[in-house]
């Protein structure tokens, strides 16, 4: 299990802000199950759904931002888990951009790649590996989506969601897998020890010009739109 506990440049759990958070939350005092559950809930709901400057930023930066998406929230989740001695790994995918429609709008959506890089975190507890994906969307944002689409029953795809049961998705960790975008997966890249290794082999393909526009303009518009949804505007 040593490879699933090591620190890496992205999983920088020795960083001062991460160590401060771990100590303030007293996570090390909990048993393994509750360590995972408490950290999972924190990353899901206290780190809001939003788009950072890049997928490959360290956990300490994600924590400082206070928001993230699948890849960046996953990096923070893994760093916090390893920081309290919980083994974890990352599973990489591509997803159809259709599940981002609504979070992405207008020209941003039209110009986005057809397939978007995605990952979830796998956590080992009592010898069982659990697939955890539903930390991506904070409950505040998801609840507003469910209110806006109150007549929808069954499958839903859009606004960062791709699930079979929109009003009862499996988002709470109780020694089970959790999913929120899994129905949008189009390609499976497999399991990696750490996000550093995954991103060396697979990442979002984007031209330098589009990457510049995303970093400096597109993501800010997307975050503003997500904030409006979360706040019911």
TrEMBL record:
<feature type="domain" description="Transglutaminase-like">
    <location>
        <begin position="28"/>
        <end position="133"/>
    </location>
</feature>
<dbReference type="InterPro" id="IPR002931">
    <property type="entry name" value="Transglutaminase-like"/>
</dbReference>
<dbReference type="Pfam" id="PF01841">
    <property type="entry name" value="Transglut_core"/>
</dbReference>
<dbReference type="InterPro" id="IPR038765">
    <property type="entry name" value="Papain-like_cys_pep_sf"/>
</dbReference>
<protein>
    <submittedName>
        <fullName>Transglutaminase family protein</fullName>
    </submittedName>
</protein>
């Amino acid at each position: 299990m040593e490879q699933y506990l090591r620190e890496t440049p992205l999983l920088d759990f020795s960083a001062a802000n991460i160590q401060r958070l771990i100590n303030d939350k007293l996570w090390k005092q909990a048993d393994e199950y509750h360590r995972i559950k408490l950290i999972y809930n924190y990353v899901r709901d206290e780190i809001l759904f939003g788009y950072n400057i890049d997928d490959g930023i360290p956990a300490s930066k994600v924590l400082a931002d206070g928001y993230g998406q699948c890849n960046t929230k996953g990096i923070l989740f893994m760093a916090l888990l390893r920081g309290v001695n919980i083994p974890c790994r990352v599973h990489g995918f591509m997803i159809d951009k259709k599940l981002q429609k609504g979070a992405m709008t207008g020209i941003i959506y039209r110009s986005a790649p057809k397939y978007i890089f995605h990952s979830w975190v796998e956590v080992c507890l009592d010898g069982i590996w659990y697939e955890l994906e539903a930390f991506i969307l904070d409950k505040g944002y998801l609840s507003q989506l469910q209110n806006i689409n109150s007549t929808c029953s069954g499958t839903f795809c859009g606004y960062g969601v791709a699930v079979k049961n929109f009003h009862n998705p499996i988002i709470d960790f109780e020694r089970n897998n959790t999913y929120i975008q899994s129905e949008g997966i189009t390609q499976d890249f497999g399991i990696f020890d750490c996000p550093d290794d995954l991103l060396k082999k697979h990442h979002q393909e984007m031209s330098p010009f589009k990457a510049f526009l995303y970093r400096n303009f597109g993501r800010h518009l997307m975050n503003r739109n997500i904030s409006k949804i979360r706040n019911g505007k």
